[in-house]
Specification:
globular
Length: 248
């Protein structure tokens, strides 16, 4: 196991509610790890802590041997820890190309001003085209984001995240609201990306999770109740009880 990001007894409580309870999870440099569990299991809270959205109550997060617990989001992005959100987050009035270019320019440390150097803008533009082609968005580059289909908007979000040159990418419900065809398309893209970087997926579509995950971690009331390959999780009685009740 070549874990390059790991959590050590990570906890977060809201008043008397323990949203994450002593979570110890290791992530490798590549591959696709899904985090699943019933509503309220602590999945999004866990991602929010790692990506700097909320602080941990206790415990630690380590990335490439350094402690990064409670670092702000912008510092984590510079380290290569990026994410998408449950709710679509794009610039609707900008084109597809502009959405990704702005993210790429910000990540490269270049100025967002009009009078940036031609050399820096050319490099940003080239990198933007590479990302758009990689995700199948090249033909939509000039389209205002608000005119895209919902499925393509979610793919655009992934493209914006890739502009941050992530080493690990957290995806929170990327297929929510999608049609079966759209879900199949984005899940195939995600699986392909996981061969190059680490992907952490929070998702309720169990068919998708079982089809593309390398490993699955199951949370229930903030604690890990099972970890393993998809087939192990599919047949795990504790997991069945967490989702369906003890009478199953």
């Amino acid at each position: 196991m070549n874990a390059f990001l790991c959590t050590d007894n990570l906890c977060r409580h809201f008043g008397g509610v323990m949203a994450t309870n002593r979570l110890c999870i290791e992530f490798e440099k590549t591959g696709l790890r899904s985090i699943i569990g019933p509503n309220g299991a602590g999945k999004t809270t866990f991602i929010n802590i790692i990506t700097g959205r909320i602080p941990a109550s206790s415990g630690k997060v380590h990335f490439q041997g350094a402690e990064i617990t409670n670092k702000p989001t912008h510092e984590l992005v510079k380290l290569g820890i990026c994410r998408t959100f449950q709710i679509t987050s794009i610039f609707n009035n900008l084109t597809v190309f502009e959405n990704v270019r702005i993210a790429k320019q910000a990540n490269s440390g270049g100025s967002l001003r009009i009078f940036s150097t031609k050399k820096s803008l050319k490099k940003v533009a080239c990198d933007t085209w590479v990302i758009l082609e990689r995700l199948g968005l090249k033909d939509l580059a000039g389209l205002p984001a608000k005119n895209m289909s919902y499925g393509d908007q979610r793919i655009l979000e992934v493209a914006i995240a890739l502009a941050g040159d992530p080493e690990i990418l957290f995806l929170d419900e990327p297929t929510a609201g999608m049609s079966p065809a759209e879900t199949k398309h984005i899940s195939d893209l995600i699986k392909g990306l996981s061969k190059e970087i680490s992907i952490v997926l929070v998702e309720h579509d169990m068919d998708m999770v079982m089809r593309i995950s390398d490993k699955i971690t199951v949370l229930h009331y903030g604690s890990i109740i099972a970890e393993g390959a998809p087939e192990e999780i599919r047949t795990n009685q504790l997991v069945r009880e967490a989702y369906l009740g003890k009478d199953t």
